[in-house]
Amino acid sequence: MVNIWEYANTHPRIRLVDKKGKQYIGQTLMVFDALEADDEWDSIHIELDSGGIVGFYPQDIYSIEVLE
After folding, report:
1. Cα(1)–Cα(60) distance, rounded to whole angstroms?
2. Which alpha helices (H) appear in 1-68, and where do they start and end?
3. What is the pTM of this model?
4. What are phi and psi of 28, to 5 degrees?
5. 1 pLDDT exceeds 90?
6. CA distance 67 to 16
7. Is the pLDDT of residue 20 over 90?
8. In the structure, what pLDDT confidence band is assigned to residue 68 with cuts at 50, 70 and 90?
9. 4-66: what fold?
10. Looking at residues 20-45, what average pLDDT do you find?
11. In what order do the strands lie in the sheet with 43-48?
């Protein structure tokens, strides 16, 4: 499982690949703690280059790569 907390403080531009093989490219907006967000799991949210915002749970992520 990917450690999404590695991306919490630096808010890097990333390429995230989900378990279905779909790629998402954009800026890391926020990593939410499950307890603080009143959710079951921690999650990472990304502002996509296309303008949308998507969120993922660690168990749904295949890989994350930091882009330059």
Report:
1. 9
2. 34-37
3. 0.91
4. -65, 125
5. no
6. 10
7. yes
8. confident
9. SH3 type barrels. (2.30.30)
10. 96
11. 53-56, 43-48, 23-32, 13-18, 61-66
Q: Residues, the chain, total?
A: 68
Read off the tokens for 16.
Answer: 């995230």
For residue 15, what are the CA distances in angstroms to 24, 34, 40, 52, 63? 6, 23, 24, 15, 8
What gap in Å lies between CA 46 and CA 51, rounded to an integer? 10
CA distance 36 to 26: 24
Beta bridge partners of 28: 46
Distance CA 61, CA 68 (A): 20
**Residue 14 token pair:** 């990333």
The residues spanned by each domain of the chain are 4-66
Task: Show the tokens assigned to 15.
Answer: 């390429």
